[in-house]
Amino acid sequence: MPEVFVHRVPALADNYIWLFEYAPGFAAVVDPAVADPVLEAARRLGLRLTHILNTHWHPDHVGGNDRIKAASGCQVVGPAREAGRIPGLDRAVDEGDVVRLGDHDGHVLFVGAHTAGHVAYHFPSADALFCGDTLFAMGCGRLFEGTAQDLFAALGKLSALPPETRVFCAHEYTLANARFALSVEPDNAPLKARYRQVQEQRARGEATVPFRLAEELATNPFLRAGTVEELAERRRAKDVFRG
Ligand code: ZN
Ligand code: FE
Description:
243 residues; six-stranded mixed sheet; 33% helix; globular; binds zinc ion; binds fe (iii) ion
């Protein structure tokens, strides 16, 4: 298996745009909020951008589509159920579709909840999951369009992936999420340890993403909710939490 690099491009206040270098010199851009930092990073790293992978229609995930496509001629791949809202969409994908990048197969998972058509891309051969705003470190995306039932199904799908999977989510929300998680499970030892670790990382100005799915299974109160009702209650509590 050739080595795979995923480059992080910070954008806006707390977005992460990912450049998935699936073959040497070739990359797919995941959720480009903006174009300039992506084009600049591609130049600096000597990457040809061949694809954009969008997880959902929110502007902080598709804002760079048009300019990146115009500059690179790349193919835009995005959620079929939001096809009308993805700028420059070339290929609409849904659950069960496969996006092949070099030697890597990306399995499309339908995870509608944060938005109704949200998808995630899982590349088993790269141990990588690009999940947009569905799953965050110790958190999950707000329910803008879907129900708690939808979120329960989406998080259940992600929980079932191999625990060593590296999760590349789209925002650095980790510290605030950790504070809420501790309010739910104050005696969770792995959670307490992780909170200290991410506090130190952020104090040093480091990113806390990606992280392993196994860490989420041990510390994420949304993944750990046993029922739809429990998940709904935690999501509602998080929406108004002031840590
Ligand atoms: Zn979003
Ligand atoms: Fe977002």
